């Protein structure tokens, strides 16, 4: 698979400070998310009224929340959920974005015109707002939010991929592949796509970033992940009321969001630096 | 007769007024023949070549006449059948070796592309064939070139790779659209020698498009002189260079700079 090979090449090629720092931060967070799938120090939903709002200690390193739940365990679950949602969002968004953008950029003409005007119309809405509309149609919940955010992210990816294809489609090597008798699908995915991968990778990382923020935002508004499941945005919202008395409730989820965003931003920066 | 072109006319329709870029062109290409098409920019020589390669856009363009290859008219052939010919029976080398190779694909894979698309071969057979042709185009160290990316090669090497990629499927017609224009003179003459050698060894017919008369004189058996979309004169290359009949051809030939020693 040339696409996978090209991704491998990107990782071999890029080793600037930004890329490495980003890789370390996102790597650590990813490992925490992975561990969170199998193990948390306490049950994230187990309540214990006797330890309500206790400050961070050795037993509960991030302290306990208003219902006596271990904040560290909940942050772990929150990272897991946020990671999952943002990954799926980016996968849905970039997957459909690549297909639509490639088709529009490669074939051009009226098809491109129509597709891109629809895209522009969707693009006019901020993606969070668009996701909000979709969630209000589908109803709140884990999977609906994922789908809604995924759809909301399609236009920006489609646009990037389209402009990439537009710049490549008249290059001699594409003509040459066509003259070898290669079909459209082969030209699109084997010949052109690897050439726009650096641009795409960088925007995928920014997409991750936006997805993390969007998910946190939707959960903060109470239409994302539903309690008792934990999400970073939801914890932020619950912790907000206790900011004066038990700041750890909001502090740690907030910090993790900042770190995730920072990590992805550094990765994206590192990729576009080397590209 | 391998390729027979009858009354080929190409007209653009993307402006207010239709624009005729090729008008009533007739010629044929025999097996093993090297046919040159010479003319200034805008004479329709590249358009004619593109029509033979089946690369003309399908819209906004009026095409009439026939381009017959093995009894099939390339102008009206359905797309999937055309794809079956392209890269298999008819191959093209472009002018710019710098941009005609995919920068993210290894040379080996690009040379193998035509085999992958048109032949039922396994990886080892394909590689053997690709290596054979990388050798035939006189690239030293073919093993290294096979694993290299285009940016690691010089212009002349890339043009050799292009020729290998075009010839790997043993096509009957090779269309060379100004294949040496982007190269410096020494590399140019090497590539011309290489093309002549391949023509002799593989028996491939070459349609050689150029504005450079001295190149045409060196390489072609027969030549077509085009101006403003029409054929001005055609015939045996030596014959035409010795005594051109048309005024335009005379002017073209007299424009070749000659080196004179000062006494």
Concise account of the structure shown:
The complex is a heterodimer of chains A (275) and B (263). Chain A has helices spanning 2-13, 17-38, 71-107, 109-123, 127-138, 142-168, 172-179, 184-220, 232-240, 248-274. Chain A has 275 residues and is an all-alpha fold.
What does the secondary structure layout of this molecule look like, with pairings?
The complex is a heterodimer of chains A (275) and B (263).
Chain A: H1 2-13, H2 17-38, H3 71-107, H4 109-123, H5 127-138, H6 142-168, H7 172-179, H8 184-220, H9 232-240, H10 248-274
Helix pairs in contact in A: 1-8, 2-3, 2-10, 3-4, 3-6, 3-8, 3-10, 4-6, 5-6, 6-8, 7-8, 8-9, 8-10, 9-10
Chain B: E1 3-12, E2 19-29, E3 34-38, H1 45-53, E4 61-69, E5 72-73, H2 79-85, E6 90-93, H3 107-118, H4 123-136, H5 142-147, H6 155-167, E7 173-177, H7 185-202, E8 205-210, H8 213-219, E9 222-227, E10 230-236, H9 237-242, H10 247-254
Parallel strand pairs in B: 3-8, 3-9, 6-7, 7-8
Antiparallel strand pairs in B: 1-2, 1-4, 4-5, 9-10
Helix pairs in contact in B: 3-4, 3-6, 4-6, 6-7
